[in-house]
Structure formats: C-alpha cells, structure tokens
Design goal:
Length: 244
C-alpha cells in the first residue's frame, strides 16, 4: 500500500510539462489527482489517462481558487497541494516592465500562497497535509532573470515560514527547485541559450519531468521533512554560473 492511497492531490499547472509528470507519478502512487490548469481540454485529457479529475483553474483569480478547493472537498478534501503553475518570462533590468513583474509575482508567488490559505483549514482538521511548492534553481540567482528569481525566491521564503506556522497542524510544507528541464516552456528558448544552460549542468543533460516528479512524490509521503528546498538540477546549482 502506498502512502498516497486514498489521498486527494491537487496539482496546479497540471497540464504543463513538469505538471503532467507530477500528475502521472502521484496517480501511479495511488492518489486521486485533480489536474488543474487553464487549458481545460489538456487537463481533461491527462485526467482521463491517469484516472483523475480535470479542472479549470486560474491561480490568479480568487473565485477560481475557491472553486478548485470546493471541487476537491467533494472528493474528500485536499491532502496534497502541489503548486506547479508558473510562468517563465523575464528581461534585463534596462528593459524591465513593471507589468511583467506584477504578472510573474501574481502567478508564481501570490497564487500559490492564496491556495495554501484556502487548503490549510481542511488539512488542519485532518491533522495531516502536504504542501509542495515548485520553486526554481533560479531563486539562487540567474543572469537576466531578476523578476522570475524574485518571485521564486519569495516562494522559498514563504515555504520555510509556512512550515513553522502549519507544522503544529500536521502539515508539512516543502519546495522543489528544478534546474533546467526539457519542457514546452524551455523548448521556446533560443538554441544558443538552451545549449549554454545544458553545458552548465555537471551531469551533462537537461532534466526530465520525471526527475522532478520523483522529488515531489517523495515529499508527498515524507512525514518528517518540512521547510526544506530540494534542488533538482543535475548539479547546476554548484557548477559554473550561467553568466560564465
């Protein structure tokens, strides 16, 4: 029996590259997975394959967030919340637009925190719960990525503080910080930038969604790990900086 049998896992951004890998892994571990995404058709398609539930979710919209928690309540309530929805877009400071910063913070930081706020009461009532936030290796700093790094760094800080606040309610709060991962999002990078990123990885390859999904699955079951940031980057965080 897996520790996730009978558990309800809400995965935001579940139709994305990393999100899909997480949904597939948690379903394989026995969880009922709610694949939540802006793309309704993609969410439903993935849910049909893994035996889960598809759900339309805009993490920046308060009503949409409440509807997602209510949807999960019918299934028994959120046991595992995976905040995977995110956007990767940035600019150097000379061409930086405030509107872009606000969008990145709204999706990558404020949306996840609002979902934790909504899911926590139900978890406290059960005296059990797992919150896993998808940060990024970029929280350590990435050349030309001030806004994205700021948002993800904020999520790391929030993860650690929430672990202190919610631990007494039986909830663990952790973050997974992926490095460079092969997804549709990173496929859009210019080829020379993509190659420079891969060249900076000591293991010598880009990450795969299942690399990240394995870390999430571990944290979804780990009862005595909280407030931690698990960097899954192939060693890039200790290797040559991207700016080199």
């Amino acid at each position: 029996m897996s520790g996730l049998d009978g558990k309800v896992a809400l995965v935001t951004g579940g139709a994305g590259g990393i999100g899909r890998g997480i949904c597939e892994r948690l379903a394989a571990e026995g969880a009922t997975v709610v694949v939540a995404d802006l793309d309704a058709a993609a969410a439903d398609s993935i849910a049909a394959v893994i035996g889960g539930k598809g759900l339309v979710l805009d993490v920046t919209d308060p009503a949409s967030r409440v509807a997602a928690i209510d949807f999960c309540a019918v299934l028994g309530g959120v046991d595992v919340l995976v905040n995977c929805a995110g956007v990767l877009k940035d600019a150097r400071i000379a061409t930086f637009e405030p509107a872009l910063f606000r969008r990145l913070v709204a999706i990558n930081l404020l949306g996840p925190l609002a979902l934790v706020r909504l899911a926590a009461p139900g978890m406290i009532e059960k005296r059990a719960g797992r919150v896993i936030n998808l940060a990024s290796r970029a929280w350590l700093g990435t050349f030309g990525s001030t806004a994205y790094s700021t948002a993800k760094g904020g999520l790391v800080g929030a993860t650690r503080s929430l672990a202190l606040e919610l631990g007494g309610g039986g909830i663990t709060v952790n973050a997974v910080a992926p490095g460079f991962v092969d997804t549709p999002m990173t496929d859009g990078l210019p080829p020379h930038i993509r190659q420079r990123a891969i060249d900076s990885i000591p293991i010598g390859r880009a990450g795969r969604p299942d690399d990240i999904a394995g870390a999430v699955a571990y944290l979804a079951e780990a009862p005595y790990v909280t407030g931690q940031v698990l960097v899954v980057c192939g060693g890039r965080s200790i290797g040559n900086p991207f700016a080199a």
